[in-house]
Design a protein that fits this description.
Layout: H1 2-14, H2 19-33, H3 39-49, H4 56-69, H5 72-84, H6 90-106, H7 109-125, H8 130-140, H9 151-160, H10 164-170, H11 172-193, H12 202-211, H13 213-228, H14 233-251, H15 260-290, H16 293-304, H17 308-325, H18 328-345, H19 350-364, H20 372-381, H21 385-408, H22 411-420
Helix pairs in contact: 1-2, 2-15, 3-15, 4-6, 4-14, 4-15, 5-6, 5-12, 6-7, 6-8, 6-11, 7-8, 7-20, 8-20, 8-21, 9-18, 9-19, 10-22, 11-21, 13-14, 15-18, 16-18, 17-19, 18-19, 19-21, 20-21
Length: 428
């Protein structure tokens, strides 16, 4: 009977059934088969809701939606263009920086492509061919996930029981590395193609800087307040939401009060989906731990190889596949608890593991045949998925280079937390 139900759940997933229903069904079957009370799942969910750190996820998500809904994209693009438009490839760097900023606050690359694609793609097409433009916008959608206060970073910290301030710091240098690699390639490509540039003008630079000052100050206010201990992480999340509302509604007046309920609803839907999956997945994860599945996987790896390098290669391949098949929030919730015992056995720091996981999942968004960003860009720009496949291949190769460096140079993830991570208070 259990086998039949299991086959039914697989079929449910293949036909596009909701992930939380699949996970919940698997948890119920597992506990019922093991003779454990099904109410254990509700206990797991209740434990989740008692975690005060959960409050920061809806606050940061709401702030990201507010920023994306206003005219902040136009102001930031204008400032970035005035700053680096004179470089060969400066327009491409503008796209990279702007998308990274917005993905940092929304935590979802698809939202960045939908919100900014219509603005950035025509700008790129003035200078670059279609293939490069499509590939860059699609790849840029996920490159901000490692910068604070990215929701996936916070979610990983909660799941892995790592100090949140440590995770926020761990992502900065790897995120800069990814930006640098893509920017250098874009500049080199533009230099050899002799693309047009925008002459630098101090007056334009200062004017656009003044117009975008409120958005540009936000990351420094958030991270600076946390690291100096002036505010706790919960307070920083609330401050970010209030700051974003004041900047977009009161100062710039780019959002009317009538629109706010819709923005609250949209951001709440995303947060609700994350929390439902998180609560249900905790039940399934605890069931798998009861069955000692992580221990069995660890024993199998140890019997296969004792090499940390080979283990990390296998981990990267596994995570790239996971990144293709599910969104980053679901992947973090489901996969991370199973990876933690393996990381501990091989001496991989939890913060370093988190950056490896998120970097892989970033690339998974782009990886054919079913990377999520490929289909989002296909719908947004009305191009076939096959065209998107060809457009992103080179960018995937560049991101894989960054992944290798992030994986095998742990100091990229651990140096800043060691130097700056001694904050006056614990944030988890």
């Amino acid at each position: 009977m259990g086998l039949i139900i299991g086959i039914g759940l697989v079929g449910f997933a293949l036909f596009g059934g909701a992930l939380f229903a699949l996970l919940g069904g698997a948890s119920i079957i597992g506990y019922a088969t093991a003779g454990e009370p099904i109410s254990t799942i509700l206990i797991d969910f209740n434990r989740l809701t008692r975690n005060s750190t959960i409050l920061i996820i809806p606050l940061f998500t709401f702030a990201g939606y507010i920023i994306a809904e206003g005219k902040a994209p136009q102001r930031l693009v204008a400032f970035a263009r005035a700053s680096v438009g004179w470089l060969p490839g400066g327009i491409a760097v503008v796209v990279l920086l702007t998308c990274a900023f917005f993905t940092t606050f929304t935590g979802a690359s698809g939202i960045t492509i939908i919100a900014l694609g219509g603005l950035l793609y025509p700008i790129l097409r003035q200078t670059y061919n279609e293939r490069f433009s499509l590939g860059l916008v699609t790849a840029s959608g996920s490159i901000g996930l490692l910068f604070p206060p990215s929701v996936p970073l916070i979610l990983y910290a909660i799941i892995a029981q790592v100090r949140i301030d440590r995770m926020l710091l761990a992502g900065i240098l790897p995120g800069i590395l990814i930006l640098a690699i893509l920017s250098l390639y874009s500049c080199g490509w533009s230099f050899f193609k002799r693309t047009d540039t925008t002459p630098f003008d101090w007056r334009v630079f200062l004017r656009t800087l003044w117009e975008a000052k409120w958005e540009l100050m936000l990351p420094f206010i958030v991270l600076g307040g946390i690291l100096t201990g002036i505010v706790t992480l919960d307070e920083a999340a609330a401050l970010t939401a209030i700051y974003a509302c004041i900047a977009e509604v009161v100062i710039h007046r780019s959002i009317s009060l009538r629109v706010l309920p819709r923005i609250v609803k949209e951001s709440t839907v995303l947060v609700g989906a994350i929390l439902i999956i998180l609560g249900i997945a905790l039940g399934l994860t605890n069931y798998l731990i009861t069955l000692e599945v992580p221990t069995a996987v660890l024993d199998w790896i140890q019997s296969t190889t004792e090499s940390r390098v080979i283990t990390l290669i296998g981990l990267n391949i596994f995570l790239l596949i996971v990144g293709c098949l599910m969104d980053i929030f679901s992947a973090v919730i489901i996969v991370v608890p199973l990876l933690l015992p393996i990381a501990e056995q091989f001496g991989i720091d939890k913060a370093h593991l988190g950056i490896i996981v998120l970097t892989n999942l970033e690339i998974g968004y782009l990886t054919p045949p079913v990377g999520m960003n490929l289909f989002i860009s296909s719908m947004k720009f009305d191009r076939s998925v096959l065209v998107l496949y060809r457009s992103v291949l080179l960018f995937i190769a560049l991101l894989l280079i960054a992944l290798v460096l992030v994986t095998y140079v742990p100091e990229l993830s651990l140096w800043l937390p060691r130097v700056l991570g001694k904050t006056p208070q614990s944030l988890l």
